[in-house]
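So, can you check what follows?
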Amino acid sequence: MTKSVSAVGFDLEKKQSELIESKMKRIEYADDLIVDLTMRVKHDKAYSFDATVNFRWGAQGHVTSDDFDFAAGLNKLMDILDTKIKKEKDKIQEHNK
């Protein structure tokens, strides 16, 4: 899986980058299912997280979350992303039976 993280309107601090890396470990079980993951983080008044996942079989998932706290927003995004990946994985496994 190719991961791409970009910050829009601000620079990611080292601590924030490390937090993103550690949270990404949560979806490592899906490495063989995902071609690439693109995450954009915007900061205006709150942090806005935006992630797009491209699956091996051509499907695409898009999830977003917002929060005033960076870590809380990232956690919300990873929760939604994790659920999205599991649903997509279940759907493809069901289809292959």
